[in-house]
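User: Modeling request: complex.
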Amino acid sequence: AQRVTQPEKLLSVFKGAPVELKCNYSYSGSPELFWYVQYSRQRLQLLLRHISRESIKGFTADLNKGETSFHLKKPFAQEEDSAMYYCALSGSRDDKIIFGKGTRLHILP
Amino acid sequence: DTGVSQDPRHKITKRGQNVTFRCDPISEHNRLYWYRQTLGQGPEFLTYFQNEAQLEKSRLLSDRFSAERPKGSFSTLEIQRTEQGDSAMYLCASSLAMGAPYGYTFGSGTRLTVV
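Assistant: Request completed. Predicted assembly structure:
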């Protein structure tokens, strides 16, 4: 069964400290992995996807197929990073995206 | 084109009433998706269309729910005989065909409250 697990509901990090949001997945195949972000009072938006291997707003994520993980990282947290973050996957043949329950990131001043 | 539009933004209805939501996708996107999000949960897939064809429906979509996309443009989601458990944010998203690997564009959602 397809599943995305985000073990932390809330993560509080001081400004300037490193950030790591954990994501583990279950999928029998080669999924596409994503991170979506929702800032306060804004719509859900794509932050990054593993196929493009890009860095957006200083965030990166590496797909680890052995550990079935796709953790989101940023070396130095900024206050504007406070938001709800969702890890998500879709199968290469199946179009729908499955989301995790999300982690609220709170950057402390 | 300002992105994916959803109407209304908020809907309060009495239990047992029918409600209908509308979604206008990005004009060149031929795939349209409906999701539901409740407090503390991530978005849960309900159904999706490619053009006017409804290609998949989740088991979450009971017989009281129906979605249409009659001309392959806007879509409607109707809930009949609403129940308190239907209270949620209903999200619409669109993408190009085979767009999942490139992500979806979401609307702002319609928040339904059943009293």
